Amino acid sequence: MSIQKEFVLRYRVDGHVRFQIPARICNVDAAKAITEGISEIDGVYRANFYRSQQKLSIRFNESVCDFKSLARQLFYLLADLEKNGALKPKPISKSALWKEKAKSKLDDLKAARWVKEKFGDAKETAQAAKVITRLGMKKPTAFMKDPEKAIIDFLNDVLVLFLIKLHWNEITQNWLVKPLKYRYEWMALFYMFFLLVRSRKKK
Q1: For 5-25, how does the pLDDT look when each residue is reduced to its tens digit (9 = 90+)?
Q2: What is d(CA 26, CA 100) in angstroms, rounded to the nearest whole number?
Q3: How confident is the prediction for the chain on average, in pLDDT?
């Protein structure tokens, strides 16, 4: 059976996929070759290989590389690596074996850290929402004068905060690095802020 058929798609949303991978390629050399190859695919900005969990996580920009294109390039990459023998583990010394075991434990810690980071993100978002709420409550006259506008302004603030938080990694890792390539995304961002400022102007 070819190695590609042993990859099982376990999770898929826009810009993120996760595969269950066969145990026979969960070695240091294969993990390095696969992650390096995936990282070279245009549109991919993160590839994580969890050897101890037999999982491969890929985050990518749908506007640059859609799922079908990613799957096709991943198929060819695995075929080339398998043909060249890059997926087979190389003979290692006892010291290297000890390091590999330590790395495997570190992968488990990274998974726990990922859960902690996600919890922290949710906590930060909730705290930011509380700040926005407090700022809004400092202007009770505006709320009493036009409650509908006050509520809409509050929801707009929450939406902008959420969108920035959602795309923060993409902004810092891709948009800032290649502004011309992501010019349409920048235009959308500036237009969003324009609408936000415009909505706050007194008529």
Answers
A1: 889 999 999 899 999 998 888
A2: 11
A3: 78
Angle at 72 between CA 67 and CA 75, to 5 degrees: 125
What amino acid is encoded at 199 in this protein? S
- Please say whether the beta carbons of 153 and 146 come within 8 A: no
Residue ranges covered by each domain of the chain: 3-91, 108-200
Q: Token match 């920035």: residue? A: 164
Supply φ then ψ for residue 139, to 5 degrees: -120, 65
- Chain position carrying tokens 């969890």: 50
Return the SS3 of 130.
Answer: helix
Locus of tokens 């390091």: 99
If DSSP codes are grouped into helix, strand and coil, which group holds residue 17? strand
Instruction: Calculate mean pLDDT across residues 121-125.
Output: 56
* CA nearest to 44, candidates 84, 20, 19, 71: 71
Decide which of 3.40.50.360, 1.10.1330.10, 3.30.1360.40, 3.30.70.260 is the CATH code for 3-91.
3.30.1360.40
Q: Of 173, 181, 191, nearest to 64 (Cα)?
A: 181
User: What stretches of the chain show up as alpha helix (H) in DSSP?
Assistant: 28-39, 67-83, 94-137, 140-145, 147-166, 168-170, 183-200
pLDDT in tens, 57-100: 999 998 888 999 999 999 999 888 888 887 776 665 566 667 66
